[in-house]
Design brief:
binds adenosine-5'-diphosphate, alpha/beta, four-stranded antiparallel sheet, 10 strands, about 40% helix, Rossmann fold, single chain, binds magnesium ion, globular, about 260 residues
Amino acid sequence: MTGSHIVVDRLSKRYDTSTGAVQALTDVSLSVGPREFCTVIGPSGCGKSTLLAMIGGLLGPDEGSIVIDGRRVAGPDPRRVAMVFQDPGLFPWLTALDNVAFGLELQGIPRAERRRIAADLLGPLGLREFALKYPRELSGGMRQRVAIARALAIDSGIVLMDEPFGALDEQTRFLMGEWLLDVWTRARKTVVFVTHSLQEALALSTRVVVMTARPGRIKSVIDLPLPYPRDLESPEIASFRAKLWGELREESLKTMNQ
Ligand SMILES: Nc1ncnc2c1ncn2[C@@H]1O[C@H](COP(=O)(O)OP(=O)(O)O)[C@@H](O)[C@H]1O
Ligand SMILES: [Mg+2]
C-alpha cells in the first residue's frame, strides 16, 4: 500500500472536563495528498495531538469528518494508519526485532515471515546488530527508530508522528530527521508529522500547516516545493524560515500571554 489521501473536513473537537469545556479544535479543514510529508506546527496546547488522534481514529469528532481514500474514519485501523508518539512505547519484554514484528501478527502474517520483514526493515535503519537486544539495552534514538520501524512494517498508507523526536537531544534529532527523510523517500507513505522545531519542518516537509493558538484553527498552509536533501543555510530556506517564524511567532505570543 502506498501513500493514502487524507481529507479533513470542518473538524471541531471540545473536551468536557470537571472544570469546564476546552475547545481544542475549531473548523479545521485540510487535504493531505498521497506521499506528502505534511508537518503540523503550532504553539503548545493548540490541538496538534488532538488532530492526529482524530486522523488515527483514536478520538471521534464533535463536528466534521475525516475521510481516507474515500472511506470515513470511524475508529482506529492500524492497517490504514500507523502511529508513532514521543514515547516509543516499546514492549520491554520483546527484542527490537519482535517489537517491529508485533504489528504484523495482527495482520495474520506467520511468525517466520514476520521476522523476515522486521529484519529487512532494521538493517537499513542501522539496527542490524541490535535486532536481538531489548529496549533497555538501546539508546533513546535507537528506541525511537525501532518504534518508527514498527509503524513502517505495517502495510498502511499513512504514518502519523506526534513529536517523535521530542525527547531526544538536538544532535540526535538532526540525525533522526536525515534518517526519516531517507526512510520516507523509500517507503512512499503519506506522513503527518507534528513538531515544535522549525528546523525539522523546513528540512523534511513538502507542506507545513501552521495552527493558531487555542482553539486551534489552521492559520496558514505553506508549500515547500524544494528538493531533498535541503541546505538549511540556503537563501531559499531562509525566506521560508522567516515566513514560517512570522506566522508561528504571532501565535506563540498569544499562548505566552494567555
Ligand atoms: N483528554 C483531555 N481532556 C481535557 N482536555 C484535553 C484533553 N486532551 C487535550 N486537552 C486540552 O486540549 C487542548 C489541545 O491539546 P493537544 O491536542 O494535546 O495540544 P498540542 O498537542 O497542540 O499541545 C489543550 O488545551 C489541552 O489541555
Ligand atoms: Mg501534543
